[in-house]
Amino acid sequence: MDPKDIISDEESAALRAGAPATDTAGSGLVPAGQVQGLHADHWERILADRAPALESIAERMVSLLKATGRRFFRTSLDVTAHPVRSVRWGVYARALPAPTSLNVVDIRPANLKGVITLGADFVFTLVDVFFGGDGKGKRSDDLIEFTPMEQRLTRKFVDALAADLKQAWKPFLEIDFTVAKSETNPIFAGVAASSEPVSVARFAFLLGERELAFDVVLPAALVEPLRSMRETGQAEGSAGTAQKWRTRLREDVQEARVALRAVVTGSSINLRDIALAQPGDVIHTELPATVVLYAGDQPLLEGTLGVCQGRNAIRISKPVNRRILGEKHG
Question: How far apart are CA 136 and CA 148, in angstroms?
Answer without folding.
Answer: 21
